[in-house]
Design brief:
Layout lengths: L2 H9 L19 H5 L28 H5 L6 E7 L2 H12 L6 H12 L8 E4 L4 H7 L3 H13 L2 E2 L4 E3 L11 H8 L3 E3 L4 H4 L3 E9 L3 H12 L4 E9 L5
Parallel strand pairs: 1-7, 2-3, 2-6, 6-7
Antiparallel strand pairs: 4-5
The structure holds zinc ion (2 copies).
Length: 241
């Protein structure tokens, strides 16, 4: 190990991204946290990424919700179930200034997406309203989008979408209330529309709950001329909440 690196690792030993346990590699989970972090695998709904019973490739299978209410996008991808340690990790990334967590999180997302999205895909994060951005100083969706872009070598358009008005936090609202809140709240950036037209777009966010925010974003990029829209989230809630 080079001298500087060994000095740094003595000063800042690698810690689990979820607890304080020491790990052998940077940005890793310790064994205990790994077992309590629910990575999604197996058959999933093609449109919202919830796990489905049975086996298959998941390219065509849909859950009951997505059959009843078609989504305005073509495919969804998620890495984690929004439960146990995964929920804590997302909350720290979102509310606790732990922007360093975007590094392992976007690496997991890039690994999930590597063989699923085409090289010409344009990555667009779910936008934060500027007031929230000022308060928090970062948009976790943009951090994840940048990490995915760097990991996969695909283009990222951080300001492809804009929030035209602040929306209150969606926690505790019913799905219908969430969709109503988001109605017309997200628009394509008028200065970026030409970069979205004719493209395959991947919209990135930290969590998908009802899908209301992602639906507003998908509708917006379609209005700007996107020819295919997929969505990718770090974590997916397993039950509507
Ligand atoms: Zn740990
Ligand atoms: Zn579904």
């Amino acid at each position: 190990m080079p001298v500087l690196q060994s000095l740094l690792s003595a000063l800042y030993p690698d810690q689990c991204v979820s607890c304080d346990a020491l790990t052998d590699t940077p940005y890793a989970l310790c064994g205990a946290c790994w077992r309590d972090t629910p990575f999604l695998e197996g058959l999933e709904c093609a449109l919202c990424a919830v796990p489905l019973p049975g086996s298959g490739d998941g390219n065509e299978d849909l859950c009951d919700d997505c059959i009843a209410m078609p989504r305005p996008w073509d495919r969804a991808h998620a890495v984690l179930a929004y439960e146990r340690k995964a929920r804590a990790l997302v909350q720290r990334l979102k509310y606790s200034d732990r922007t360093d967590l975007a590094c392992p999180a976007s690496a997991w997302m890039a690994a999930r997406l590597r063989h699923r999205i085409g090289a010409g895909t344009l990555v667009v994060p779910v936008p934060a309203h500027r007031l929230r951005f000022l308060a928090r100083r970062y948009n976790q969706a943009a951090l994840l989008a940048r990490g995915i872009g760097a990991g996969l070598g695909v283009e990222v358009l951080v300001d492809g979408l804009l929030r035209t008005r602040a929306t209150r936090r969606l926690d505790g609202l019913t799905p219908a209330e969430r969709f109503a809140q988001l109605e017309g709240a997200i628009r394509p950036n008028p200065r970026r529309g030409a970069m979205i037209g004719g493209r395959k777009v991947l919209i990135v966010d930290d969590v998908m709950t009802s899908g209301a925010t992602l639906a507003a974003c998908a509708t917006a990029v379609r209005s700007a001329g996107a020819v295919r829209v997929e969505v990718a989230v770090l974590a997916r809630t397993l039950k509507a909440s």
